[in-house]
Amino acid sequence: MEAPHSALCVEEAEDTVKELRAALAEAGITLPSLGLDPVSLAREAPCPLVESGRCSVETARRLTAVLR
């Protein structure tokens, strides 16, 4: 039962990254490193973490403005 649960967790995490990427794109923001953290996927029962990566200062400012 653990394998199907893990597969669903990974699928849900991938869908969430796609939704976040689309929402950021609507705001004119691109985070090139946005994706799933490969280390968190390497576990026997993966529990994915979202890796947002690094961005320029300008992108950080734009992201901050959108969140406010």
Model description:
With 68 residues, the chain is mainly alpha-helical. It contains three helices and two strands. The chain has helices at 2-26, 38-41, 57-67, and strands spanning 35-36, 50-51. It has a two-stranded antiparallel ribbon with strand order 1-2. It starts with a helix and ends with a helix.
Element string (H = helix, E = strand):
HEHEH
List low-pLDDT spans: none
What number is the mean pLDDT? Answer: 90
| β-strand amount | 5-15%
Draw up the topology in text:
Layout: H1 2-26, E1 35-36, H2 38-41, E2 50-51, H3 57-67
Antiparallel strand pairs: 1-2
What is the gist of this entry?
59% of the residues lie in helices and 6% in strands.
Key terms:
3 helices, 68 residues, mainly alpha, 2 strands
